[in-house]
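User: Hey, my collaborator sent me this sequence without any context and asked if I could get a structure. I don't really work with proteins. Can you help?
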Amino acid sequence: MRRLGSTGDLPLAGKWTAGAAADSIGVWQDGVFAFRQSLTDASTTHKTYGNSTPLVGNWAGDGIDRPAVWRNGQGMFYLDNNDVTQTVLFGSPNDMPIAGDWDGNGVDGVGVRREGLLYLTNTLSGVGEVYQTAFYGLSSDVAVVGVWRALSADEIPPPVVRNFSQIVLPYSRAHFIKV
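Assistant: No problem. I've predicted the 3D structure and written it out in structure-token form, which is a compact way to encode the shape of the chain:
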């Protein structure tokens, strides 16, 4: 078994290399991303960002996931795009950041969740313009972005986890699934 990280690290997953057949593992600890290029590779890549909230996304549309961070007090995203940092001013302090492919074009955008309302943008530099808004869930819910129904884009609004005991699906007949 290959280990990565320590107790208390935030686990991450992504396709860190071109042509990867599956996601590989990564962790966030004290402002540092650490990730493995594949599940069988023992070498680890580290990138330091400082005190922020981590995100992962395919910012270039090339099939490679790269790190990003959200600086809460600034309302600013910092995206690593082929080792060039792109900044996106979007959101307000205390928003919860999210990332996903909102329009199915293969490039992830960023967004924020505020009091159950999602604000999404596909603008990846400068000041983000709102691409779409969606109201869904309670302010205490946690959004879980992903392609859940074999569509080409991430779901808007995404499912949410409520009270760490159920998943609320906005598009299913069974809106509450106990976990």
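In plain terms: The chain is about 0% helix and 45% strand. You can pass these tokens on to your collaborator as they are.
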